[in-house]
Amino acid sequence: MARRKINKLHSERRAENRAVMHFLLSSMAGVMVVALVVWGVFEIQSSETLPIRNVEVRGEFSKVNEQQIKAVVSHNKLQGFFSTDVDAITNAMRKIPWLETITVRRVWPDTLQLTVTERKAIAHWNNSALLAVDGSIFNPDVATYPQELPKLFGPKGTEHSLLRNYIAMAASLNTLDLHIDELTMDARRALVVKLDDGTALNVGRKQTNERLQRFVEIYKDFTVSNKEKATVIDLRYTNGFAIRWEKSPDKTAAKAQLG
After folding, report:
1. The domain 121-257 belongs to what CATH superfamily?
2. 77 pLDDT higher than 90
3. Dihedral sign, CA of 35, 36, 39, 45?
4. Which fold has domain 54-118?
5. Could you report the per-residue pLDDT of 29-64, keeping only the tens digit for each?
């Protein structure tokens, strides 16, 4: 009986020892795994691990060049494939005024690919900036301004409405081969159009589309019957418009009546 108790006690101790050993081995394995993971993270984040060797620029652009874009990337100090801060590079690229969209992605194993689209300017804005086709104002280097664009002038916050007016008016006038050189909105929101031949059209604040359309409809007959050049045409009349002639500056109240 005593021997059985001793054997049982030894068996229990061996089982306990095995459990302790298993626990220690498991703990050591866990510590090693954690250590390997930590080491791997640090190794991946190292700039010496899979360094970026190539920068590829894609997209169509004319106001900026590939060297400018790559210079911004280089300024942000390229690191390893995994450690390069893509967000930081994207934010730095947004500081180039001509760039509208920027996509930065890693391409295995050592390339950073940049895909960009350039803003499309539609007009000069208040002689201090450019207006994009979506109505946003941006301020690139003056040397890159397209000189052939029309000039829009208006109070702060009116750029979108003024752009809509410009697009509608330009479409109507283009049918007559007339082109807008300047479009101005004053503090009262009244519009004045200056054509590329120097003629000014006072459109006013109300019924601007209707007034301009009335002018378009009579323009051809008006130019055939009048050989003198009009310098100012006031469209703010119900049944016609007032004209100031180039050679007759005193005839400021002359009217062209609609039939």
Report:
1. Cell division protein FtsQ/DivIB (3.40.50.11690)
2. no
3. negative
4. Ubiquitin-like (UB roll) (3.10.20)
5. 555 544 444 444 444 444 466 788 999 999 999 999
